[in-house]
Amino acid sequence: MLSNSASSFFARVFMSNRIDERQVRHIAHLARLRLSDEEIARLGSQLSDVVLYVEKLNEVATEGVEPTAHPLAVCNVLREDVVKPSLGVDAVFENAPDAAAPYFKVPKVLDQMDA
Amino acid sequence: MVERLEAAGAVIVAKTNMDEFAMGSSTENSGFFVTRNPWDPERVPGGSSGGSIVAVSSRMVPYALGSETGGSIRQPASFCGVSGLKPSYGRVSRYGLVAFASSLDQVGPVSVDVRGLAELLGVIAGRDERDSTSVDAPVPDYVAKLDEPVGRMRIGIAAEYFGEGLNAETRRCVEAAIEVYKKLGAEIHEIHLPHSAYTIACYYVICTAEASSNLARFDGVRYGHRTAEPRDYTGVYSGSRAEGFGAEVKRRIMLGTFALSSGYYDAYYLKALKVRTLIKNDFLEAFKKCDVILSPTTPTPAFKIGEKSDNPLEMYLADIYNRAANLAGTGGEHSVRVYGGGFAGGAATDGSAFWGGSVAIDCACVSGGDGVSFDEAGDLCVTE
Question: What is the ipTM of this complex?
């Protein structure tokens, strides 16, 4: 496990490189997207272009700047702990690709689970 | 939102076309078909809320709702010559809206003119306990605000929004609007948004990162498409997602996943969040000098269908002026009054913060709009 500063050092060193096929396959796995060879080739070049453009953020000095993850300074919005009507079970299952309410059905995969 | 509209007497007519998951600037990424600009069918209507805007622009309906993550109401409204508004973040409930980038998304009104925006916003604005990010702030009477004079309103003009890349016609159109406001007594102030050159880069890291996280819920289990023949355990997810998502959506999920992945998180995502702070501070500083900021909506008029399809980066630049408002959380609120028809030009404004009650303007001007007149309602028109 790298420390934050070490990992950003590695990112700085490597990020000007184009995103190669191996990286595209790795990202696709993280994102759970099955991609064709043709898509992998195209995405490698398109993502490289965008990442190259995005690297202009490095021109901006951000030492000591707090990150903004959300535009509003709102946190922990609470309501009274009172039971109210909510979305019905039928409505919840209406869009399921396969279901026997109140259960979602999924393909049998346990005997072929990958590592 | 629909509940509020129906309670106010609205009739829901249809759902409209859009870029898939609101990812696009032209409605060419629709899962159904390409929507065309009613003023010139060879051109795009803009996007992603292209269907809503075209429904109003072609006068099928007087009002529509769109959604914005970074210009998806204002940009097509400008391309199609109607009025569109991105409310300030938190002003309108997002309950029922499919999440794209949760720190940026807002629902907003579309109408033939600014009066229509005021009418529609008055109905949809306000706190909704089903959206914890909706803000509990009083909703002003937007329609009554329309009849208030412009007075000595301070309008900020950012030099950064009038630089290289701005189409000459669009510039002329916005400058004509500035002259009109001067005649009405408004003060014009030069302001600076020094980090505006980094808006698009910052926006794309943040919006794709949030999208990759939000769209993880489309796993083929609870809703959406499921692949017919998963090869293995992860194949249920990766196969369903591969078959279900279109090219642009995959591209953004990949970019966002990259920006959030181990080793790159600090360099891309965290860096973008810090630059976002600086962009937001630019606006806070600017709003000390002015009540509203007036800018072009888009750098160019509507482009041709297919013109930017193979160049995602160029497509992203079509919203160069709009995205800062989403990052900063500002929006055009009570609206003042410049509108017109045509597909070419447009001006958009950002109000400081909605609870401050500042006046903002939303303008959609016509390409080549030299003529300036007042209509019966006292609204200012810039027409051909």
Answer: 0.83
